[in-house]
Amino acid sequence: MTSTQTPEEVVQEQAGDTGEKPPFSLELSQDQKDIQEWAHGFAENVMRPAAHEWDEKEEFPWPVVQEAAKIGLYGFEGIAQFFADESGLSMPIVNEEIFWGDAGIGMAIFGTTLAVASIFGQGTPEQMGEWIPQCFGTEDDIKIAAFCSSEPDAGSDVSAVRTTAKYDEAKDEWVINGQKAWATNGGIANIHVVIASVDRELGSRGHAAFVIPPNTKGCEQGAKVKKHGIRASHTADVHLDDCRVPGNCLLGGKEKLDERLARVREGKKSKGQAAMATFEASRPVVGAQAIGIARAAYEYALEYAKGRVQFGKPIIENQAIAFTLADMKTEIDAARLLVWRASWMGRNQVPFENAEGSMSKLKSGEVATWVTERAIQILGGNGYTREYPVERMHRDAKIYDIFEGTSEIQRIVISRAISGHHIR
User: Fold this and answer.
1) 201 classed as catalytic
2) 145-265 in CATH: which number?
């Protein structure tokens, strides 16, 4: 990346964009295989040995993220390389491998990308060039970013967001007030991207996304969340109290916002909502993370079943165990196919006419929860203890039924897409 290039230009340059959609293929290129092997090596050699320690500490694993930054796995250029892949598969491939290593540390490494996706998807080229590098910092001074959408009373119901942004025309500033909940990296981030309502009467169609620059007065961390799983990832409330940001912190700019709001008030379509636009782009990647956890649990249970002897033979020779493992493998592979299809569609701007992005996230999340539970069952009493990693994997997997749209929300999205009816 040169000093004159925007993040968008870097992605386009690395992609070698011709304007033509590459064919969807399940055969990975040599570059994709190399990236997969590189990410797997970091997950195996750096993340797994540290996983139990940081899960027990329930602290952000700064030293591990620092190691990821040193090899280019954490940072703008690495993310740009993954996003640039015209097939759309590099990003899910890397996420699967990293979350195979450990989900908590994986979320610490990739939690920043949700804010980056919002800036990239909604920001102007100038905003991308200014804010995306600040989300990551440098190898010697790493930074992180947070995407703040959910609130205490607005999780799945995006339209219930109560955080407001009022424009002070005299000062060309936005004044933001409200409380965000369950924000990954919330409060400790260098950059916060906040979803706020600029017109409460328009519901979710009156939302906009704002960048909160570093050290902005009025943006403070609230309570840190003590979680069931992904405990190495920092999650906290974020309080916004008369938080003033410059006018150019509105992603996309005020002119674009005013045009969109005018269309909505005239009864026309808004052409996208601030929070949903980010979630639509990220759901297949989130699905890949869930697959990584499921695959790790399946592989551990398989090796355990081969070595565990009961009644004079390895338990893998018991049909019940063998069939369970066969089902685990089948479900994981089926989920991955959905993720890869949706990732290709998203990268190549193929419309999700049947909510393929939601399908991939729904299937992957439920597979991860089910597979990790089966892994505990195969290990028996050992699986229920913290001496074996499948217990942690099961705790980590459960969030994938919940965040970025619960399984129930995904089913609503899918049912609306396939029926054309407003299912509630």
Assistant:
1) no
2) 2.40.110.10
